[in-house]
Amino acid sequence: MSSWIRQTHRWLSLAFTLAVIANIVAMFVSPGATWIGFLALVPLIPLLFTGLYMFVQPYRAKARQAS
């Protein structure tokens, strides 16, 4: 399960990077295209949860070892 979450996090980070680049390009092409800014939120929200999961893993492992 952990490796699946890590792989998902990597792909989400790639999608987020592409969405940010698309946002920057869209702002230069058409300054009124603010809706494209919300496109970056699509991968950002699951990226937050997978990142938090990976952040907590070492602390959970230490807690298991201590008990």
TrEMBL record:
It comes from the Bacteria. Keywords: Membrane, Transmembrane, Transmembrane helix. The chain crosses the membrane at residues 12-29, 35-56. The keyword Membrane applies. This is Transmembrane protein. It comes from Steroidobacter flavus. The lineage of its organism: Bacteria, Pseudomonadati, Pseudomonadota, Gammaproteobacteria, Steroidobacterales.
